[in-house]
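Example 3.2
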Amino acid sequence: MGLYSAPAAVIEQPTEPLLVVISGPSGVGKDTILDHMKQRGLPFHFVVTATTRPRRPGEVEGEDYFFVEEQQFLDMIEKGELIEHALVYNDHKGVPRQQVREAMESAQDVVMRVDVQGAKTIRALAPEALLIFLTAGDEEELARRLRKRRTESEADLQLRLETAKEEFGYLKIFDYLVLNADSQVDKAVDTILAIIEAEHHRIDPRRVEL
C-alpha cells in the first residue's frame, strides 16, 4: 500500500459563493474582461455599478452601468444603499449593496469590477473577498489603450497614468495579479477562471459576510 490511501467516503466540495473583485488602473481592460466572461455564459452574477459619469458609445444602461444623476447618487449614499463608493476622476462610482447580497444568497459567485479605491474598501468590509489586480503589459501599452478610446483629454490621460503608478503600490492587498496583454483577452479570462476554480477547492473556503 502506498503512503496515501483514499478516504472511504467522498468528501463534498464546499459550495460557499465567492465575491470576486476585479480591479486595476483605468484603461487596463476591466470592462473588456467582464464582457468576455459574460459572452461565455458563465454562471456568475455580474454586479452592475452605479456611476455619474456620462455613458460612452456602445454602453447599455443596466448592463454596463446604472447611469445616474449626481443628486440621485448622493441620495443612495445617504440611505446606505452602496457597499462602497468613491469619487474617481470627478465622477462618482458605487456598488449597490442589495444587489450583491441577493446574488450571494442565491449561492452564485458574484463578480464585480471596481477601481483600486473601491477594492481597498471591499477588502476592509469583506476580508474574505477574492481580489484580482488586472494589469497591462507596461505603461506604454496602458497609454495606448487610454488614447484609443478617446474619452480623455491629454491632461486627463496623464493624470490617469500617474494614478496608475500609485495604484500599483496597493498590490499587497490583492490575492492575485493577472496580465491582460494586448490581443490576449481570452488568456486573461482563462487565468481568472482557473483562479476561481482553484478557490472552490480550498480546504478552508472563503466565507464572505456583508
